[in-house]
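Q: Okay, next protein. This is ATP-dependent RNA helicase SUPV3L1, mitochondrial from Cyprinus carpio. I've checked the sequence twice, so it should be correct. Can you predict the 3D structure?
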Amino acid sequence: MSVNRCVYLLSRSHIRYRVCASTAAVANNTTLHPTRRTFEKLSSRHSSSNSSSRPLDTSLFVPLTLKSDAGGDGTVGEELTQPLDKSKPPRLFHQAFVSFRRYVLEMNSLNADFHIILSDICCGAGHIDDIFPYFMRHAKEIFPMLDCMDDLRKISDLRVPANWYPEARAIQRKIVFHAGPTNSGKTYHAIQRFLAAKSGVYCGPLKLLAHEIYEKSNDAGVPCDLVTGEERISVDPEGRLSGHIASTIEMCNVTTPCEYREHDRLNQYAIPEFMLSADSNLKQSNENAQLKSTKKYEIEVHNYKRLTPFSVSNHAVESLDNLKPGDCIVCFSKNDIYSISRQIEVRGLECAVIYGSLPPGTKLAQAKKFNDPDDPCKILVATDAIGMGLNLSIRRIIFNSLVKPNVNEKGEKELDTISTSQALQISGRAGRFSSVFKEGEVTTMQRDDLPVLKEILGKPVDPIETAGLHPTAEQIEMFAYHLPQATLSNLVDIFVSLAQVDGVYFVCNIDDFKFLADMIQHIPLNLRTRYVFCTAPINKKQAFVCTSFLKFARQFSRDEPLTFNWVCRHVNWPLVPPKNIKDLVHLEAVHDVLDLYLWLSYRFMDMFPDANLIRDIQKELDGIIQVGVHNITRLIRATEDQPTPAENTASTGLAVLDTPPLKRGRGTKNQRKDPRMTDSSLSSRLVRDGLLTKELLQQLQREWVREQSQHGDDSNSANKGKRKKK
């Protein structure tokens, strides 16, 4: 028997004793535990010896630390038997004990049979073990999962996910893995095979990529439909499916047979040929996973090298005065993008701007503007959104910073140095094979960051050794059958805690899912509908998007369709071009809300009936946002000229937008503090722009402090003189 079991039994006896001894019916001291009688005698002896003294303060007794008295036995006991299990007692048992004790002590009346049992024990006519059945019954009432734990474990068993698709596993399949860095031609070769096949499906991680393949296929004379979460386009006038489909990854139909798929997931589809295009660091893990799970796969690997070279410069840019045509400044916050765009305009240059929350049409328009050799715009200011889905003619990548804000498990914002994989993905955009620049260059804005960048790029890329799994709607519904009173968020938590996975898999982060589940928990929806709503791709940092999500769910629960007019009233359509950054941020949020409507319209067509009308105004809104981004420096100037209260600074876009408080991460070696992310004062900007050195700034600060102290002394002397005259 383990120590854990011994502690369990001891606690059980102690619990029963405390429950009995704590009831009002305890009248006979002969039924008390011997240890308790010893302590009571000690207290009574103290009080009888001095009746006028205060009651004994037992908190003054400090327990001594005991050492093992095993002597020279060593581990003989362990050798004769087995090592003891010294894990802590189950938490559920402790919670059940606390609840049971409160139930016994606070209930005005107990069941007759339970009352009689307690009375018998208190009178010495029963045994404390007689309480145990009542304790267990109470525990199962407050923790219903105790009766179905085995079933829950079976449902959450994720150890062989390949068996979820038996039809796909029943056939012999070929997997072609195109492995290589950015700009190596791996995707090009995969797409050529896609176009040559009689039928095929392309699955990409971004809408931009799906749109790109959709256009390339149709331009090449291969009819291809588009399927994304928010959009369906059929090239056939009568709506018949084409042989080729370009879709986002989550929208791929797992039941449609085809000859070929170009994809980034495995083990899902009943197809003869499956092509995976990814970085080479994914190759080994996928090979191992496939060979481990089945022998019906034929795996073919094609390795590629970068088509054009790129090098790390030996000099940092240091000043925006040193920018050249084809430069791309990479920032990791909107605030830096706004600031740098404004500074570039002051120097008489024009720049394009790309960041993640911009609509796809606006991103493409800005990319086209930057790529156009006849356009005066020769500088690009962007976030790491340029890393995927955009073809850009970049000569030099300039990292404005090497730290990127991330949100940890507690919802706190941390600044982490970018990984080797991220640095390579972004750096690889310089000197693309199809661009006018045949060689790429990468550097930093700050001199101190350059050796750090070289160190990052010199490290090997960490291999991707595991893949994520997410509980399906069917699995959560089976959990709900056994736990009908549990909330969706609680069901998911229990699922994750019980889930069993193989070594090459892990359970995905479900924080965003739980965030939405908690938000709409009070709204009456059936479980399947609630699950679908919680998988909606929304930006939870945008307050307007979250509010709209809540209103959508509430309107849905009333069984009232969300019509075009209802949505227009909600977003105050029609909208006008933005006058400042705050207006631009709001328009981006409205675009996300319309995206949410379109996404839900393909899941609940009857309740979201006006998808075509919503798509029309979304395209119009995209054009309005494009106008705003084209004039972004004017918007920044207008925002700077507006006197805004300090508490509203976050909504203007000139401070961190809708983000949790900034905090240094713990336990990450690559974390570095970046003052530009937190300090936008005039002094820091002057230093950053090279108009003021740090030494001069420190000297000015010392002089200012000295003058303030002298001024304070003079004021104090004057005040003292006035008081004396009085």
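A: Here is a summary of the prediction. The chain has a mean pLDDT of 77. The longest strand covers residues 173-179.
Q: Noted. On to the next one.
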